Structures are given as structure tokens and as C-alpha cells.
Amino acid sequence: MVSLPLSDLPERTPESDHTISPDVDKYSFSDNGPWVIDRTELTWTAGIVLLRANTRRLVPQLTAKRRLPPPGRLAVVTAHLGAAVIGWAVIDRRRGGSDSRLGLSKRLRSAAEKLGPTYIKLGQVISSGEGLFPAELVEEFKACRDQVPSEPFDAVRQVVEADFGRPLETVFSRFERTPIAAASIAQVHSAQLITGEEVVVKVQRPTIRKQVQSDLKVMSWLAPFLVGRIPIAALANPPALVELFAETITEELDFRLEAENMLDVAASFAELGQRGMVIARPHPELVTRRVLVMERLSGFGFDDLESMQAAGIDTHEVIRIGMTGFTESCMVNGIFHGDLHGGNLFVMTDGRIALLDFGITARMTDLERTAFLRLMLTGATGDIKGQLAAFRDLGALPPDTDLDDVIAELHLDEQPVDPTTLSQEQLVGELQRVIKALLGMGARLPKILMLYVKNLVFLDGAMAALAPDLDLIAEIATLSTYLAVTHGERFAAEVGGNAMDFQIDAEAISRNTGIDLSDGAGLTYSDLRERRDIIRQRLDRRNN
User: Fold this and answer.
1) DSSP alpha helix (H) spans, 116-237
2) CB 204 within 8 Å of CB 290
3) Would 8 be classed as within a structural domain?
């Protein structure tokens, strides 16, 4: 889902002219909504706890080992993916390095587009995984974001009328035939209710549910055959990637779950006082498995720096709002938007961030949130063994992993080296050694960590566009102090330690990263990007 430019939206009475909506006390909504949310009166939440549990239980069934998946779909998928891999092996592989990966990435992207929405969705997930997958694969799959044709309006009408049980004209006085955006699972239309409210309507593709389930069975059957045969990121190997993908996409297929995600995230932000984040209200009645009607918000695209500056918006503050809201909601309530990218959020005219599209929302169990807390604390204080224990408890390492062996195997008990001081051969050799060791230990990337890292990657890019001169150390220190003062006692009670342990230790960062911070000059995003560019250039030259 994407936002519209302000000029494309119908004029609305300014919010300041109205009384604040009563539901803003409980939810981080816009000040004056088109309706008021009272959770006790919602018609679409009945049985939703059981629905969410059943959806999660479906994942092992779809990804279980089986003799043979649906043969027709298997033949089609095998033909397209087989052609891509064979073409790479015969033509591109011999080139080696970045050229080899680029050739494979182009062929896989082309195959995904031919295979349709499920594979395009997988490509979109990969495209926002910078740092998790090879750069060539990420860049190539970014093209998948705009490669899904929209459904004809007659198909959209049929879904809406079937789910609402009445003619479209009895619900909407206007329903734009051309969608605002068309994604792999659904498309979004601008509309107006017969009661006058401007809304957006998310409509699921008619056959996507059946297609996704069939494709997941095929993916899970094929994935083991690809292990070690194509250069995909080691910790997100094909079987693990399919499992992660299944966990995320199955919940996207029921918009009642997405609407509940919207309410739960909005409630979390309100509880924490994070009023810089705004969630659109889902309609109290017009939510079904395949149709979601929600409040229409407006704002600037997240990369529209020029328009924001012209409107007097402090883009540094926008970054601070995003960092604080995202981090605090993760650590305190264990829930966060799991798919941040430029199409899923925009900046409102008052500088607040509006979040859209909650199909992928991360929900931590109490055990996972506690492990995540320990990961944040030990990361700030430089406790290597504590960090590994937290990774293990989050599922990144097997439960019986001997942490002392991990420390010895990865040389974590030695003084870290600044990677920018290494030669190309040394840098590549070190990366290969670490990846081989991790694979040997059974390391994997669990869903929570994948979504968290994906969001960090987005915030990284947002910082590059909106606040490249922001002092990262100073901002993280300010955020750490805020968390320590606001939640330190609670955190200490949950994971042990002292409330003030939840503050950044600059010496620990310097010690564990090899970055010298002793001169007090700070570390801006531009400084960090320069260091990354040095490492990337050395790796590229070595691989070529």
C-alpha cells in the first residue's frame, strides 16, 4: 500500500477545527477520525484469537516434507526456476564474483515475475533484506515491487460484494475503478462511503489464497535441493527462507488479522506515549477476510526530502520519532510493524509518521521479548556471552549450543579488529571463516530477528536520505537514557541487572567494533556509510 501525494487527495476540513476523537486516548490515531473505535463493539473480532492460532498452525502443514507437491504447479515452477539456474550455471557462473551473482539474480527475478504473485511477494521480501542477502539479489528484486498487474474491476467488485453480502453501491457512493496500488496479495482503491467518509479499500486477489498454499508446498519441496548449489545468503538458506516466508505470508491472507494488528500497534504506541506515530483506523464493521476498509490519511512520501523541508518539517526529528517508536514498542510490548519500506509509511504535514499495511506484524512471545531485551542490554554493555545466549533463546542457535565453544570458534574472546584495516584477502577469508563456523553450529535466522533487521535496514536508508549528519552515538545514548529512566526498573526486574545498565557504553561499542570513539567526535551516519563503502569496494574487487 502506498500513500498519495497531497495534491491528489480531496480537500478535508483541518483536524484543528474539530474536537479530538475520544478513541485517541487508547490508540495512536489521527486526531479527528471519520469514526470512533470501540473494541467492544467491533463486529469482525469474534473468534480472532482462535483464528490467529489456527493460521500459525497451518505453516508446518504447508512446509512439511512430502513425497510430491501438486504436480501441475511443480512442473511449472521447476521449468522456470530450472531454466534460471541452468542458464546461470552454463553462462554466468564462470564469470565469478559479483558478475556471477548478478547473472543469477536477474534470472531468478525474471522467473519470479513469470511464476506470479506468490513468487513476486517472495522477491519483495528479499528486496527489503539488504544485509541479509547478496546486494545483487536485493537490487534486482526491487524491480518486483512494481511488477504485479492489477485485477480487473469486475473481479474486485465480485470479491467486495461476496464478502459484504450486498451490492457495492449500497456501501460506497464512489469506488475508483483504477487502484492506487497493486501488490502481490491485494490492491488498494480510493473510495467514499455512502455516509460520506473518504476511505481506502484493500481487496484481496480472488485466487491468491489457494495459489499461495500450493506454491508454499512446491517451495518447501524444492528448497532442500538448492542448498549449497546457488550463492544465497548462508544464514537464510533456501529451506529456512521458505519457512520464514510461510510464517509471514499466511497471516497476510486474512485481513481481520491485519486490522487487529493495526489496533494492537496503535494501542502500544498510545500506551507508550509515542504520539509521533499514527495508525489509520480500520472500519468498525467493514472488515472481512478479503476486504479491509480503513481511514484515509495523507502526507509526504518518506523520501520526499524537498517537500518536507519546504513544509518546515524537521527531518532529523522524523528519524528520532521512528527510532524511538520502533525500539520502545519492541522492547516494552514485543510488537512492531514487520515490513517497513517507503511504500508503507509517509510523513504527515505536522511531522508525524503514518504507518500503513500491517499484513506483516511481528509479535513476540514473553520468552522472545525477554530474550530480545537481554540482546539489547548485552549489546549496549559489551557482554559477548550474554549476546550469544540471547541469540540462542531467540532461535538463532540450537538450544543445546555451548556458548563457550562459539566464543572460541568465532574468536570472540580476542580484541576485535577494524574491518577497514584488513586487506581484501583477509576480509574475505574472515567472512568465509565466520559463515562456515555458524553453519556448522546450526545457526539460522528466526522470523523475529529477520523482521527486526529488515526494519533496521530501512531506518538506515531513511537516515541516509533525511539525516546523514545525525550523530548516531549521541542519538543512541539519548534513546538509551530515555529507556533506562522510563523502563529501567521494569527491564531490570524482567532480565536482572540494574536499571541504569540500560544505557549505552561507548567504550563497549569501541571495543566490539574496532571504531575509535575516544576523541569524542561522535559517529555520524555519513561516517558509517564511508566505512561500509570501503569494505564493500574491497569485497567487490576481491570477488571480481
Assistant:
1) 117-127, 135-141, 153-164, 208-226
2) yes
3) no
Per the structure, the count of domains in the chain is 4
Dihedral in degrees, nearest 10, Cα atoms 38, 40, 44, 50: 130
- What cell does 184 get? 502481490
Cα separations in angstroms, 508 against 154, 513, 515, 517: 60, 8, 10, 10
pLDDT confidence tier of residue 8, bands split at 50, 70 and 90: very low
Compute the mean pLDDT over every residue in the chain, rounded to the nearest whole number: 83
Q: What is the pLDDT of residue 5?
A: 35
369, 314 in Cβ contact below 8 A? no
454-499: per-residue pLDDT in tens? 888 788 778 888 888 877 777 877 888 888 888 888 888 888 766 5
Percentage of residues in the chain having pLDDT higher than 90: 45
Tell the residue number behind the cell numbers 532529523, with chain if given: 316
Print the domain residue range for 351. Answer: 38-46+257-363
Cα–Cα nearest to 55, from 209, 250, 261: 250
Is-contact 14 6, C-beta < 8 A? no
My answer on whether 263 and 355 are in the same domain is yes
Distance, CA of 9 to CA of 11 (rounded, Å): 6
**pLDDT above 70: residue 284:** yes
342 and 242 co-located in one domain: no
Q: Which amino acid is at 100?
A: S
Q: Indicate whether 401 and 305 sit together in one domain.
A: no
